[in-house]
């Protein structure tokens, strides 16, 4: 009997796809691009700005606009070498560069403002696979009667979170490379509306899942491959969503703080667990939603650490938090929808779906999770 073309194509394509997923997971490291965060204050005729940035990325000349992982960038090798520098060596390399680089930052306060570097503090040398945060301090003289500021962030510099300090209703905004802020009132009152902040933080949450959150993507796929029943998936996703919403809020509020050195290995273990349960059980047990709820608490702490990198507007904390969480949910639903369109829609009703698709895919997910656990604990 001749096999249907769909089965033949699947048997040819599935090993290649699973191999790509395994390689992707093994080479993926903590090289995600994080935004620069700048806090600024105005005191009389002086503008002060403190940038928390990835100095090595700028020094390596990496174009950060739209970049997901520095491993993918031209100059990634130089960047990795710079990560191994001691703080004193990095300061000696970065300061001359910074004095020229800040000329690309356009600050207009009643006219162009000339910025000068007043200090640089390189972050401590830690895990070279994890970007360190350094501080660059600059200042500039401004006209005494100036009332508004516009900042033009240079192309290639990636995302900037700009935060105003020392005034009522301070401005907080996200600026992409090559973009500009709206006019910012120097005496305050420029805080964005709740709806605008809500809308601004949705893509931040979405991007943390797609494409940045490979570990979260694999966990959601682990939920998907348990079975094709909508009820099974709904129970799991609901438990996961409720749990990570709780710890995301608690972490963002600063009420719960667990070191990444603990959270990240446990997230890897959660990926491995759900995948192995798919293989050896293959059905929704009574305890699985409870276990997933527990794992969701861990993932929520991971989300909170990302949100902390962006900062939350002091006057619009909850709109930003809700917007970020909505973005995360959209990202999860996108992963599930793509998985359904790729395999569930076409093969989910086939009698061989579990043995030919769900189990092999879960095995690869388990291997990646196990590798990440070992890497994050021992390597």
UniProtKB/TrEMBL annotation:
Spans through the membrane: 208-226, 233-256, 262-281, 290-310, 330-348, 355-374
Superkingdom, natural source: Bacteria
Database matches in InterPro entries: Put_HupE_UreJ
Keyword Membrane carried by entry: yes
Keywords: Membrane, Transmembrane, Transmembrane helix
Protein name: Membrane protein
Organism the protein comes from: Marinibacterium profundimaris
Taxonomic lineage of the native organism: Bacteria, Pseudomonadati, Pseudomonadota, Alphaproteobacteria, Rhodobacterales
């Amino acid at each position: 009997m001749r096999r249907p073309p769909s089965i033949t194509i699947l048997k040819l394509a599935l090993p290649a796809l699973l191999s790509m997923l395994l390689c992707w997971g093994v080479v993926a490291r903590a090289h995600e691009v994080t935004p620069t965060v700048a806090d600024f204050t105005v005191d009389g005729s002086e503008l002060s700005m403190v940038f928390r940035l990835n100095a090595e990325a700028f020094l390596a000349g990496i174009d950060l606009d739209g970049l997901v992982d520095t491993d993918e960038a031209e100059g990634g090798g130089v960047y990795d070498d710079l990560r191994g520098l001691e703080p004193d060596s990095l300061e000696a390399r970065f300061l001359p560069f910074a004095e020229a680089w800040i000329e690309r930052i356009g600050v207009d306060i009643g006219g162009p403002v000339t910025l000068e570097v007043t200090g640089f503090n390189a972050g401590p040398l830690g895990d070279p696979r994890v970007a360190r945060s350094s501080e660059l301090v600059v200042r500039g003289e401004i006209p005494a009667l100036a009332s508004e500021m516009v900042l033009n962030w240079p192309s290639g510099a990636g995302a900037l979170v700009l935060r105003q300090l020392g005034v009522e209703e301070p401005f907080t905004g996200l600026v992409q490379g090559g973009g500009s802020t709206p006019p910012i009132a120097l005496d305050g009152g420029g805080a964005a509306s709740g709806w605008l902040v809500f809308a601004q933080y949705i893509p931040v949450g979405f991007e943390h899942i797609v494409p940045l959150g490979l570990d979260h993507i694999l966990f959601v796929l682990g939920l998907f491959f348990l079975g094709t029943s909508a009820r099974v998936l709904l129970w799991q996703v609901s438990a996961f969503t409720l749990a990570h919403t709780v710890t995301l809020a608690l972490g963002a509020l600063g009420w719960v703080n667990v070191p990444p050195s603990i959270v990240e290995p446990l997230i890897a273990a959660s990926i491995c667990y759900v995948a192995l349960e798919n293989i050896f059980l293959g059905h929704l047990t009574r305890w699985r939603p409870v276990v997933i709820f527990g794992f969701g608490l861990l993932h929520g702490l991971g989300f909170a650490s990302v949100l902390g990198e962006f900062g939350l507007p002091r006057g619009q904390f909850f709109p930003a938090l809700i917007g970020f969480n909505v973005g995360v949910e959209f990202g999860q639903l996108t992963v599930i929808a793509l998985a359904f369109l790729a395999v569930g829609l076409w093969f989910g009703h086939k009698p061989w779906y579990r043995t030919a698709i769900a189990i092999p895919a879960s095995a690869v997910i388990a291997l990646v999770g196990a590798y990440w656990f070992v890497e994050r604990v021992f390597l």
